[in-house]
Amino acid sequence: MSELKQRITEDMKSAMRAKDKERLKAIRMILGAIKQREVDERIELVDEQVLAVIQKMVKQRKDSISQFKEAGRTDLIEIEEAELVVINNYMPAQLSENDISKVVDKAIADSGASSMQDMGKLMGLLKGQLAGKADMGVVSSIIRSKFS
After folding, report:
1. pTM of this prediction exceeds 0.70
2. Which domains occur in the chain, in start order?
3. Gap between the Cα atoms of 114 and 111, Å rounded
């Protein structure tokens, strides 16, 4: 079992002991998403794959929060934000825009990218390096600013 999945399972047990229903609900949701992917693909997920599942859940929560804000549903926003806090506990520390910019500069130098036409190639290189450490939307906007 991956270390991250093991940590999530242990946190679920401690949430059960503490009778923390909200945290337990969010952790069970994470484990359910991991298990679903394992069943769908008939594999045991490693840490990188577990992290990808968690990233997807973070993105889903952020999208839901923005949609609920447009609809004025503060009750649902609070639920999604509470889940997001629990889910973010399993994400690695996020890089600052300055750190991301340095990584982008290095990738541009290494790949020889010179225009927006090379954006796909750059994103492919950076996605592996920055997985879980940076929002790829931010990375994309930094690359655009460097070429404009």
Report:
1. yes
2. 3-88 (1.10.1510.10), 97-147 (1.10.10.410)
3. 9
